[in-house]
Amino acid sequence: MNILGDISTETFLSEYWQKKPLLIRNAFPEFESPVDPDDIAGLSLDEDVESRILIEDMANQSWQVQHGPFSEESFTDLPKENWTLLVQAVDQWIPEFADLLGQFSFIPSWRRDDLMVSFAPKGGSVGPHYDLYDVFLVQGMGQRHWQLGPRCDDNTKTLPDLPVKILETMNVEHEWTLNPGDMLYIPPSYAHNGVAVNDCMTFSIGFRAPSEADVLQGFTDHLAAELNNDKRYTDPDLKSAAVSPALIDEDAIQRFSQILQENISQPGQLKKWLAQTMTEPKYDELHQPLEEELEWQDIESLFKEASVLTQNETSRWAYFKDDLQVCLFINGQPQRVPESKGAQELAQSLANQRHVNIEDITSYLSETDCQDLLLDLINGNYLYFEG
């Protein structure tokens, strides 16, 4: 299924991705939501789930934000209109949403963040605002009216003294009403405002976009942790400083610059840091390895009884190649991948697909290295059997 409608992936990436918004009618034909509002409200009662309720007082142009976990009484006290429930990372709790993320495979999976579900009665919204990341908005139930404005930046004014960032003004350039199965793509920094026409749910697929400051600090912290403190600044070519002893001369600047360049220019370390960082889970406590480790004989029969191996919803996968060696990272941790050709191929296949048909990997099951790899990933609870 092409969720981009009549537009090819190549056209979308070249003309729309991070460039301009796009409305796709009927991106998901005959769409049926895997959840209803009661399911989402039920998730917000769980202390392990991040959730918020935003209530708008339209008369006074004020907002109230409540943070979960909520109770059933929390919902009975709400007004009939003009509020929104937001529940984060629903893909980690409901497998159907993890599969929905798989429809966006034309974007690297390590760039995906999570899937947020919002429920709102008539008039509910989070106000006109902008995000610093790409987002796809899939209408899951009911109707929501969207207004889009121009790109914003640090100079864009927001309303003061509010618990959320609401734009002071928004020049509307486009507006549409979305029905179930419709999808709207919004690039970073574009102003937007979605208001519920009736009881509605919207599914938001966001993407990780670390700031340049985060990249610089994160990578240099990573490098510093790898360095030996015994290796220090040296100046064996020092010239007399008697005339201007307080002067930091150009030779010193060049020596320090060389230290920075030599350490930062390490592609191998950058790959390692990037794979580690982009697979770190937002909610680390949601993932736990198996309580008791299994042996190959414990699971060998399951490869005949089950039909599919599936990535755990709480796991994030990425890999890079270093001298043709596959370096696999899951949830911020490096995974041991044997050097044999079969294990290298199998690791890539498992990483690139959320669901792997067991019949497609049968040829690997007799190889000891592949058995070791599969056993490690199953014991880590990164993979589980289906069917």
Q: What can you tell me about this protein's structure?
A:
This protein is 26% helix and 25% strand. The chain is of the alpha+beta class and 387 residues long. Strands 1-9-6-11-5-4-2-3 form an 8-stranded antiparallel beta sheet, covered by helices on one side. A 3-stranded antiparallel beta sheet has the order 8-7-10, with no helix packed on it. Strands 16-12-17 form a 3-stranded antiparallel beta sheet. The longest helix has 15 residues. The mean pLDDT is 95.
Strand content: 15-25%
Identify the strand order in the major beta sheet: 1-9-6-11-5-4-2-3
- Percent helix among the residues? 25-40%
Distance between the termini: 23 Å
Query: In CATH, what is the class of the largest domain?
Result: Mainly Beta
**Structural class category:** alpha+beta
Q: Over the alpha carbons, how many angstroms does the gyration radius reach?
A: 25 Å
| Overall shape | globular
What is the level-2 CATH architecture name of the largest domain?
Sandwich
What is the CATH superfamily of the largest domain? Cupin
Q: What's the total helix number?
A: 11
Mean pLDDT reading: 95
Please count the beta strands (DSSP E, at least 2 residues each): 17
Give the count of structural domains.
Answer: 3
CATH topology type of the largest domain: Jelly Rolls
Sheet of most strands: 8 strands, antiparallel
Spans with pLDDT under 50 lasting ≥5 residues? none
Order of helices and strands: HEHEEHEHEEEEEEEHHHHHEEEEHEHE
For this structure, the quaternary state is single chain
